[in-house]
Amino acid sequence: MIKIRKLIHDYLKHDEDGAVSEEIRALAGLDLDVKPGEFIVILGHNGCGKSTLAKHINALLFPSEGEVWVDGMNTVDGEKLWDIRQEAGMIFQNPDNQIIAQVVEEDVAFGPENIGVPGEKIRKRVEESLKSVGMLEYRRKSPGRLSGGQKQRVCIAGVIAMRPKCIIMDEPTAMLDPSGRVEVLKTARQLNREEGITVILITHYMEEAIEADRVIVMDKGKIALQGTPREVFSRVEEMKDLHLDVPQVSLLAWELRRRGLKIPADILTREELADALEKVIS
Amino acid sequence: MFENITIGQYYQTRSPLHSLDPRVKLTGTLLYIISLFIVNCAAGYLLAALFLVCMIRLSHVPFRYIVRGMRAILFLLAITMLFNMFLTPGQVLWQAGPLHLTREGLTFAVKMAFRLTFLILGSSLMTLTTTPTQLTDAMESLMRPLKVLHVPVHEIAMMMSIALRFIPILMEEADKIMKAQMARCAEFDSKHLMKKIKSMVPLLVPLFVSAFRRANDLAMAMEARCYRGGEGRTRMNPLIYRTRDWIAYGVVFGFMAAAIALRVFSASLPFPLNL
Predict the structure, then answer these.
(1) How near does any CA of chain B get to the CA of A164, in Å?
(2) Interchain CB contact of B232 with A (< 8 Å)
(3) Less packed terminus of chain B by CB within 10 Å, N or C?
(4) Which residues contact B239 (CB under 8 A, 6 or more apart)?
(5) Nearest residue on chain A to B7, judged by CA atoms?
(6) What is the phi/psi pair of residue A88, to 5°?
(7) Could you say which residues from 158 to 217 on chain B have a Cβ atom under 8 Å away from some Cβ of chain A?
(8) What is the C-alpha to C-alpha distance for residues A104 and A155, in angstroms, rounded to an integer?
(9) Do the Cβ atoms of B236 and A105 come within 8 Å?
(10) Using one digit for the tens of pLDDT, what is the confidence trace for B63-88?
């Protein structure tokens, strides 16, 4: 689905004369392959290049060096630009700054209208997309009246209406309250499972990574760690070196293990920890 | 401070006027306003009033809703009337110092008052029955011929609708910034005008910065959703003229023709109607 080879991205800072005064390397030779239908979570502290990576997949940024392929299309191929953006949808952090129209259904229609879908089909797609994020009953409402989680679900519907194969979500839950976070995450998982859409979720919250197929930890523009959530979160020390936490339960298990209790290293949920403790006690 | 400002005053209900194509309503309102300045006799004003009353009945909007819009311009109306009454030269009816109330001034003032009232009522009837989105769509469609002159019609309409969408968001933001500064003892409710203006500066700077940041985000989100201007764009609900829209056009043009006819033949009308 997505193939990234030796991707390098430099942000250039210009001085007053327009000459390049400084180069900041956001991505430093990153390789990544994403299979169709995968649910990938990308973790990393601020400034590690995760948002830059996301914008490369949607062809909003272009490589300084290296290549990005989306479904067999190179992102620097000008003719394929709109196909790429249609196939790889993007959700941003602030839902308010992504909603264009004053009515929910008109906003969802915005993407299909841009790619020239005929009116009759747009109406059908809008209905289906709103239904799949559970927002159909709000179709005629003004987005201003919705909660953060609902707004973000409208944004997701707007992307799905373009029939993408892949959705990249750049910290979609960062500005939401806990219940909004749950809503958005549930929607993302459901789209992944039921509609087979590849999801790449960028987040700060470790809890959101637990159900991913693969967790990728980025640092200094490269992939520092990757594997299943179980593999990644059992490497507590490495994660700490990268200034990242692991989920609370994994951390507690690691602490107990360090004190000499016989607890497996790859604990992710409360139930698993309870079982392990039970075994130790009896 | 900003919570009771509403943009557009759409009144949601089902009515023949609501279901008309917005292009008809926009053109119709413009033609009605032009007609108001064509008519110059009592019969003409009677006709304009009759037409307006029929439209209001057709819109199913409660009358007090429409009149509410008038309150704001009552002051303006009074001033215009006073100026017209006393400053038009002609046959003096009453005099007090330098002020002359003239016959011509009085009739002109009354006519002007009717024109302004009908104008405001007519245009608020349009905004009450048409959503802002429909209005921008109608403008885009009606201005399409200007594309030949390289007027960026689609872009103007897009800007208008985005502006409408972001006004409440920016107002909320202004309110937040204001409260944050009030918490740090900034004074906004000063009676002194200069002080009041000065206190707005620290409000406007962060508001502008945030508006630019939002604009940047929005542009990126629009591009990510394949926005590339008006070329090749389709619409979910394209504007299509139906029979009732053509009938409505007929009615409006008929009204306008009657207004012109009344002006031409006003001199030959019997007494009270030719005033």
Answers:
(1) 11
(2) yes
(3) N
(4) B21, B22, B23, B137, B138, B141
(5) A102
(6) -115, 95
(7) 161-162, 164-165, 168-169, 214, 217
(8) 9
(9) yes
(10) 888 887 677 788 888 998 888 888 88
- Whether B5 shows a pLDDT value over 50: the answer reads no
pTM: 0.81
The tokens for B234 are 């389709």
Q: Is the pLDDT of residue A129 over 60?
A: yes
Query: In the CATH scheme, what is the code of domain A2-228?
Result: 3.40.50.300
> Searching chain B, which residue's CA lies closest to the CA of residue A110?
B225
- Contact yes or no for B227 and A114 at CB 8 A: yes
ipTM above 0.95, yes or no: no
| Tens-digit pLDDT profile for residues B223-255 | 999 998 888 888 888 889 999 999 999 999 999
Domain ranges of chain B: 9-130+241-275
Q: Measure A198 CA to nearest chain B CA, in Å.
A: 17
Spell out the domain ranges in chain A.
Answer: 2-228
Residues A63/A264, Cβ–Cβ less than 8 Å: no
Q: Which of A115, A152, A155, A167 to probe the B interface (max B CBs under 10 A)?
A: A115
Kindly indicate the confidence band of residue A18, based on its pLDDT and cuts at 50, 70 and 90. Answer: confident
